[in-house]
Amino acid sequence: MIEANFSGILTALVDAEVELILVGGGAGIAHGLARTTYDVDVVYARNDGNIERIVEALRDHSPYLRGAPAGLPFRWDAETIRRGLNFTLTTTLGNLDFLGEIAGGGDYDKLLPHSEKASAFGITCLVVTLEKLIYLKRAAGRPKDFEVLAELEALLEERGRP
């Protein structure tokens, strides 16, 4: 598996002024997690303007449904995004998960109070707080999420937070 180009993906999205919150492994790394992750996970705002910006930001990066058979018809446009919710994509910059909702966190508006501006991979963007990231990892309930909980909790303790 190839590691995602976090800087390239986030630059494309931030330069297009996409409203997003970095979650998942990328958020963990932004908070100091010493792990590798193979995709960029973001929760995105589902308003019309933001959906148009998402389409434009990725248009030149060949977004395609990750895991779909080659040749399956797929159009990356605003209508596709409006009709869907969560998209696991492969792009020329690497794998990207666009999440309209996330388990334990809800949609962009519900997650926004649990985010903070941070520098992630050389790009300033909204990142889910460490406390909320721990909560999201527990809510996801996957073995790979449980594997990182101890390290995330240790980071939180180092910062003097319970």
Instruction: Count the DSSP helices.
Output: 7
Gross geometry: globular
* Rg, Cα atoms, Å: 15 Å
Which H/E pattern describes the elements? HEHEHEHEEHEEHH
Gap from first CA to last CA: 35 Å
Q: Unreliable stretches, pLDDT < 50, 5 or more residues? A: none
Residue share in helix: 40-55%
Structural class: alpha/beta
Largest beta sheet: strand ordering: 3-4-5-2-1-7-6
Main pleated-sheet profile: 7 strands, mixed
Write up what this structure looks like.
The protein is an alpha/beta fold and 162 residues long. The chain is 40% helix and 22% strand. It has a seven-stranded mixed β-sheet with strand order 3-4-5-2-1-7-6. β6 and β7 form a beta hairpin. α6 packs antiparallel against α7.
Strands, helices and their partners?
Elements (H helix, E strand, L loop, with lengths): L5 H10 L4 E4 H7 L8 E6 L3 H11 L5 E2 L12 H6 L2 E6 L2 E6 L8 H4 L3 E6 L2 E6 L1 H11 L2 H16 L4
Parallel strand pairs: 1-7, 2-5
Antiparallel strand pairs: 1-2, 3-4, 4-5, 6-7
Helix pairs in contact: 6-7
